Amino acid sequence: MARPKKIGLDYFPMDVDFLRDIKIRKIEKECGSESIKVLLCLLGNIYRDEGYYINWDEDTAFLISDEIGLKEEVVKEVVNKSLQVGFFSKYLFDEENILTSKGIQERYLEAKKKSKGIVIDAKYTAQREFMELNSPITTLEDEFKGVNSPKTRVNEEITGVNSPISTQSKVKESKGKESKVKESKQNPLQQILTFYNENISPVTPFVREEIEFDCKDFGYELVQEALRRTVLNSKTSYKYSQAILRDWKSKNYKTLEDVETTLKRNSNQQNVSQKDANTKSSAKVPDWHQETQKDDDSNRELTPEEIKELFGEDAL
């Protein structure tokens, strides 16, 4: 009898900046420090059982709360906040009642890249949100190079081959490859990731997830401009770009035009200020003012120190 195929993982990778992630910090600020325990327990259950998702219902809420010794209300509050900030996919939660994310699925596929027959159910893939929005985004394995090999079927369903979402034949898929490549090149998210990878630092799954989240929140143009400024200032962390984006948000900049208009206005003001300063410094002081200044100096009383210096100690 064949040995049952293991779906879940024995361990999962965690980014060293996990606690510094803006999403985690928002969750912790809203729900308290115990929220970290809830998130780690959820991730452990996700990777251990199904590998890339967990069904969310009353039983799951009870099991998580019982496992870490917290009230179910606390666990539910953390889950709700996690969906709100994008830690878990709200789209798939609303559609399928599961907790997952693109980052979770990418890490799972990377861990299982040498396993045979490992697939992600097409209806659970994080790409569904982009597919139904008709976004020209590439599939997970297209963006996460090296996951598939000739001997494995990893992520086969996401590509649309043999999945309920698509019945296209391999012939049609082959004919459409060229157009898909062109689409991918024009994809703004891919352009941003390529720019970051080539000019700032390698794109980690954590950074990629942050960039994707910010593109939804701020738009592609503002994220691209923030990255450009990061490079100009010789910075090598995406945290610097996020600080720029937060500053623009506080100033209610919603488009690249808003940013450029303000920069132009500030530049004009600086030029005017510099011109005024140069005019003042180059202005000739009238002779009568200099004479008055001399008279003022000659009429003032000497200090005790000046008297000692001029006439000696006995002068006082």
Automatic annotation (TrEMBL):
Location of the DnaB/C C-terminal domain: 194-260
Comp. bias intervals (Basic and acidic residues): 170-185, 286-316
Biased composition regions of type Polar residues, renumbered to the chain: 264-282
InterPro entries attached to this UniProt entry: DnaB/C_C, DnaD-like_sf, Lin1244/Lin1753-like_N
Gene3D superfamilies per record: DnaD domain-like
Pfam family, one: Lin1244_N
Annotated region (Disordered), positions in chain: 158-185, 262-316
Residue ranges constituting the Lin1244/Lin1753-like N-terminal domain according to the UniProt record: 11-104
Family: Belongs to the DnaB/DnaD family.
PANTHER family: PRIMOSOME, DNAD SUBUNIT
Protein name: DnaD domain-containing protein
Source organism (scientific name): Floricoccus penangensis
